[in-house]
Amino acid sequence: MENIVILTGAGISAESGMGTFRGAGGLWENRRVEDVATPEGFARDPALVHAFYNARRQRAAQVAPNAAHMAIARLQRDYPGTVTLITQNVDALHEKGGSGDVIHMHGELAGALCAACDHRWTAPDEMQPGHPCPACAAPAARPDVVWFGEMPYHMERILDALSQATLFAAIGTSGQVYPAAGFVQEAYTAGAHTVEINLEPSAVVSDFAETRFGPATQTVPAWVEELLTR
């Protein structure tokens, strides 16, 4: 039985109304990544960064999972082999769609992190500069998301899963953000069949053995149906 490893990116949540990372009209278009998604940007203007993530947190709470999220949850539930789900997304749409044990390699909008003591807690709807840590009281609260220049979470677990994969799928990813863009090579080295499912080709499309293009709400359910009925 296959060990399936799935990586999802912003493209799987786009049809739910969450902006994509780099597309035209995307979430980041009016804000430089350096200003809102780096430790340096946070140090320079914490009010701007908190406002940006407050808005994202509120938006994520309003949107619903789509057919692609629910198809992956169905695969996790009904597939007789192992299905490991890794996401670059910081929304909770996989969980809302019924998935369990989601590996959030870039953190979660719903989380807060103390930059002083590393304590984690559930973020309030509105975080402000100087928000105190409930554990150490330091005025050092920040969103519990991985910014550029920071190490993604759960890398040991992810690399272990990739080393055992027999099927690797990247869904809705740009292929421009590492280390996630290199996961296909890790899986290929382990002998896995690799498939990209995307609206359009990613920056690393040539690394995949199989490609499927189109809206995630169409391509992902069709792919899952094939896996469950073959």
UniProtKB/TrEMBL annotation:
Q: Name one GO molecular function term.
A: protein-succinyllysine desuccinylase activity
Where is this protein primarily located?
cytoplasm
As cofactor, the record names: Zn(2+)
What keywords were assigned to this record? Cytoplasm, Metal-binding, NAD, Transferase, Zinc
Record-annotated Deacetylase sirtuin-type domain positions = 1-230
Family membership noted in the UniProt record: Belongs to the sirtuin family. Class III subfamily.
Q: Which HAMAP family match?
A: Sirtuin_ClassIII
Name the job this protein performs: NAD-dependent lysine deacetylase and desuccinylase that specifically removes acetyl and succinyl groups on target proteins. Modulates the activities of several proteins which are inactive in their acylated form.
Q: What is this protein called?
A: NAD-dependent protein deacylase
Whose protein is this, by species?
A: Pseudooceanicola nitratireducens
Query: Highest lineage ranks of the organism?
Result: Bacteria, Pseudomonadati, Pseudomonadota, Alphaproteobacteria, Rhodobacterales
Encoding gene (name): cobB
